[in-house]
Amino acid sequence: MKYRILTLNAISPRGLERLPHERYEIGNELERPDAVLVRSADLHGTVIPDSVRAVGRAGAGVNNIPVAALSARGIPVFNAPGANANAVKELVLAALLIAARNLCPAWDFVRSLTGEDKVLDEAVEKGKKRFVGFELPGRTLGVIGLGAIGVEVANSALALGMKVVGYDPLITVQRAWQLESKVEQALSLEDLVGRADAITVHVPLNDQTKRLVGEALLKRVKKGSVLLNFARAAIVEEQAVLAALDAGRLHSYVCDFPSNALKRHPAVIALPHLGASTAEAEDNCAVMVADQVRELLENGNIKNSVNYPEAVLPRAPGTMRLAIANRNVPNMVGQISTCLAAAQLNIADLLNKSRGEYAYTLIDADGSIDAQLLQRIRGIDGVLSARLL
Question: Does the predicted TM-score (pTM) go above 0.90?
Answer without folding.
Answer: no
